[in-house]
Write a structure and sequence with these properties.
71 residues, mainly beta, six-stranded mixed β-sheet, globular
């Protein structure tokens, strides 16, 4: 997925960020691949999954990142 980051949180390379690709948004969960900052454009490679819990938050649908984001 490619798009603009509209929301993000986390620290030390672990967290989640929301990407808007122009058709809608989806959360990307990153565990050690870095966190993209709000407003940045990214390309993300990962695995789609449902029912993700991360950092005390629940995401109905998300992408579990499998590579560093492409800026």
């Amino acid at each position: 997925i490619h798009g603009r980051v509209v929301n993000s949180y986390g620290a030390f390379g672990t967290g989640a960020y929301e990407v808007d690709d122009g058709t809608g948004t989806i959360w990307v969960v990153s565990n050690g691949y870095g966190i993209a900052g709000s407003g940045s454009r990214v390309g993300v490679v990962g695995r789609f999954t449902s029912g993700v819990n991360f950092g005390g938050r629940s995401f109905a649908n998300a992408i579990m990142q499998t590579q560093r984001p492409h800026f």
